């Protein structure tokens, strides 16, 4: 089967949905398991989101019409809301608390909402905006990027930003 970035991203959405289902099935007594699942969620989510923001979304916006630009703006803002508000809130709660469970549930719901919109709107438009060769090339670029030192630095920076915001949230709560 030929490579296609849209299929790769959709498969990653599905993997995230499964991880969120697992973490939502945990109890407050599973603090260690919750922490490990949260780490897995972020290990899957951050490379995906950062590459979309750096490569896919700008390429999409260059070719999109007004409706496409609106969908692009929604997707970018949803990324920022999760990265700047939701993830720090999740990290500010102890993993053995109902607060953590509630925040993770909202986190998962936002990711699922975003993924569904992306799959039904952005990806549908992208199939018309890009050739199969371009979609295959994006897929190859994404795979290379995920294994690069640049990706590691971007992800480490994002995790650091989340930790700082989480610490500030903990101090001001």
Separation, N- and C-terminal Cα atoms: 51 Å
Helix residue percentage? over 70%
The proportion of residues in beta strands is under 5%
Shape: elongated
> Regarding quaternary structure, how should these chains be classified?
single chain
- Count of the separate structural domains: 1
Protein structure class:
mainly alpha
Number of helices: 6
Largest sheet: none
Count the strands? 0
Q: Provide mean pLDDT, rounded.
A: 95
Stretches where pLDDT falls below 50 for ≥5 residues? none
Helix-strand sequence = HHHHHH
Provide the gyration radius in Å: 17 Å
InterPro entries: Hemerythrin-like
Domain Hemerythrin-like: 5-126
Protein name: Hemerythrin domain-containing protein
Pfam family, one: Hemerythrin
């Amino acid at each position: 089967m030929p490579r296609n970035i849209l299929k790769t991203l959709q498969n990653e959405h599905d993997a995230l949905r499964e991880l969120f289902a697992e973490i939502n099935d945990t109890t407050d007594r599973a603090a260690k398991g919750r922490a490990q699942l949260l780490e897995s969620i972020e290990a899957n989510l951050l490379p995906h989101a950062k590459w979309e923001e750096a490569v896919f979304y700008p390429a999409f916006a260059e070719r999109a019409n007004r409706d496409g630009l609106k969908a692009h703006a929604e997707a970018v803002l949803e990324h920022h809301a999760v990265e700047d508000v939701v993830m720090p809130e999740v990290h500010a709660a102890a993993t053995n608390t109902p607060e953590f469970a509630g925040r993770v549930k909202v986190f998962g719901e936002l990711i699922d909402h975003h993924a569904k919109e992306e799959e039904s709107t952005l990806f549908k438009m992208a199939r018309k905006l890009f050739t199969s060769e371009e979609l295959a090339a994006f897929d190859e670029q994404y795979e290379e990027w995920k294994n690069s030192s640049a990706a590691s630095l971007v992800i480490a920076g994002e995790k650091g930003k989340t930790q700082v915001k989480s610490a500030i949230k903990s101090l001001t709560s």
